[in-house]
Amino acid sequence: MRDPVAELPEPEPEPEPETCERRERAARLFTHSLCTCEALTASAKISTDAFQGSLGPWVPGGRGASIATNGDLTANEELQVGGSLWVAGTGAGIQLVARPLFVAGEFHSAGRLNGPQASVHVEGAASVAGDIDLASLRVDGTLSLPAERTLSVSGPLEVAELRREPVVPFASPCPCAATDLDDITTTVGDHAVDNDNASLPLDPDALAGFSGDSTLRLEAGRFYLRGISGGGTARLVVAGRSALFVDGAVSVGGLEVRLEEGAELDLFIAGGFSTGRWPGLDASQAPSRLRVYVTGEQQLTLPADISLVGNFYLPRTYLDVGAGAEIFGAVVARRVASSVPLSIHYDLDVSQGGPTCPPSAPSP
Q1: 218 close to 234: Cβ distance less than 8 angstroms
Q2: What is the model's pLDDT at position 172?
Q3: pTM
Q4: Of residues 28, 40, 92, the one with CA closest to residue 342
Q5: pLDDT in tens, 233-267
């Protein structure tokens, strides 16, 4: 007879303080499945849900995958948010075009909510600072709306409780401040000297101007490169808890990341990012274990039918979504435009600092 206790996996070893610091940064920056520094435009359906990679593989429909934008939101197609929705734009606010909006958590708009032919269903509490003009509205919690603002719903209106009261302003929900970018640039510069390159050993120019494909194996530690460039594919094989600091642009034909058992990678790029094939993990691995930070300003397009696994901080990037894109993880970008359906499956582990690190303070 088998002993089930003997088959339990070994607990994760206690991480180093710097590993926990990197996980804490990820927990602070990746609080939403999708976050934009400026406007969010959805010309095709966007849907989000959540799971916890440390407990098992993705199962559809999990709650906790929020969407946020520091700008306005325009949705020309259905929007299904498997968490809360935060829209800080006060110009156009939220513009819906004849398609339903479903929010599984709270709903907060700093501006108006406009969609004369659209239906909205919020399972949690809602607050709207501007006028409301919809075809139908259902709020299962409390709806807060200033007394001077218009509530116009041409069809069904179901609200558990309507409060005509001032809506308290909220801070920009997405981490796009200059201090966030400066922190990453400073972190990369600090590791030009303070690194573990000698342990491999690793030349800072090891992936500069390579031809064909090139593979770099990283053990646990902190490693520094002056740039990554080449016409082929750069492959990063990671065998421990690693951080790679790139002090310059990454311009390659492809960038692949493979994490061995128990490994994780924080990839910091203090410069631009250009690749024909995006970095990512095998979908069976926990997305929270790959975090990519890019400070450069650029326009990028997610290739068609890509299944992208990881968490990507791109606060100066204009991101276009290719056909059939699916993301396991989270994205922070300057702007996101989606003209084709996009599904995002958020790994809750990234917001919790890791199972063996002290828990991070929850975000508002």
Answers
A1: no
A2: 96
A3: 0.92
A4: 40
A5: 999 999 999 999 999 999 999 899 999 998 999 99
